[in-house]
Design brief:
Elements lengths: L1 E6 L2 E6 L2 E5 L21 E3 L5 H4 L2 H8 L2 E5 H9 L5 E4 L5 E3 L2 E7 L16 E7 L2 E5 L12 H4 L4 E5 L8 H10 L4 E5 L11 H10 L3 E3 L6 E3 L1
Length: about 230
């Protein structure tokens, strides 16, 4: 699998011949100024929740690529009102089959409203099982014991976890989350974008390593093999 990082919590994963884009917040992010959203490919766009720093470019990229947007029912309904015809509504529950594999909505401890203030449904994390490998995107979340359920559903090749603190888990809690989901390879997201989530990245990587885990922090625009 290939993962490309677009800054903040935005990234894509290539698996099963498909490209899955997550939480595209690119054009409003000064750190991602060199990323042209018109060049981004996506067959699917998964949205963890409705906050502006996760959906800012979703409509534009979906219209540009024809991608299917997958999100909580209320958020999917909002997307349809923005002119997105291919919106798949979901919620917490059993796995959903797609042509790349399956995706399951899991608990995320956070809030969720849209830029216009309307309710965006439950925030979600996602567990993916694909022929190319399995992975977990936690979305914006605090540490929760519900993460201990995830190994029942998939043996993970990697996990994408927020590490910035303040609005989500910090790096210390992300280490615990990695233990809960039984995955020692973690891609860190949701850090350094705004002052409240600035962190010491070197220390975070050292702390992960001290627990026998690897914290990957790709540069914006970088693609890594996982």
């Amino acid at each position: 699998m290939k993962l490309t990082f677009y800054g903040h919590a935005a990234f894509s994963v290539e698996t099963g011949g498909k490209t899955i884009l997550f939480d595209p917040f690119i054009t409003p992010n000064p750190a991602a100024k060199d990323i042209d959203i018109n060049t981004i490919k996506a067959d699917y766009i998964f949205l963890s929740h409705g906050h502006g720093d996760h959906v800012a470019d979703a409509v534009a990229i979906a219209k540009n690529t024809g991608a299917t947007c997958v999100a909580a029912a209320e958020l999917a309904g909002w997307l349809q009102k923005q002119g997105i015809e291919k919106a798949h509504a979901m919620n917490h529950g059993g796995p959903i089959s797609f042509d790349f594999g399956t995706a399951r909505g899991v608990n995320a401890i956070h809030s969720s409203s849209l830029p216009d203030g309307t309710y965006a449904g439950n925030p979600l994390g996602f567990v993916f099982t694909t022929p190319g490998g399995n992975f977990y995107f936690a979305g914006d979340t605090a540490l929760t014991l519900d993460m201990q359920l995830i190994p029942m559903w998939a043996k993970l090749d990697f996990a994408v976890l927020p590490i910035g603190g303040n609005f989500t888990m910090d790096a210390a809690d992300a280490i615990k989350a990695a233990t809960f989901v039984q995955c020692d390879k973690v891609v860190g997201v949701h850090y350094d974008t705004f002052p409240p989530i600035k962190i010491d990245t070197a220390k975070a990587q050292q702390d992960f390593a001290a627990e026998g885990k690897q914290l990957l922090l790709p540069a914006i625009g970088e693609t890594i093999e996982l």
